[in-house]
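G., the chain you wanted modeled:
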Amino acid sequence: MRDVYLSDSEVAEFKTVNEKRNALRSLVFVCENNPLVYNQSLYNKFIEDYRNVEEQYNNLWQAVSEKYGIEEVPGYIFNLEFSTKKVSLVPNTNEEVVV
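Predicted structure as tokens:
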């Protein structure tokens, strides 16, 4: 893959969505693993919000892929290094949250 660098505004958008994504993952984890704070309606809201944010995240990558003419390779995912604004492909070793 050729070197691709995102604009400041693209990076800012990814940061915002990534922060929401991480926060919702944490909230889901806490709800699932702590019976003292579990609340079904809140949990359902977190799951719904997570799905929406995950869709935003995927749409951002789709837009980057189309704009810069890059594609994912099986077994790899796009990665954004925020400090350099560089997009790269990295092995997909993370387990995704299943919702």
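The radius of gyration is 16 Å.

Shout if anything looks off.
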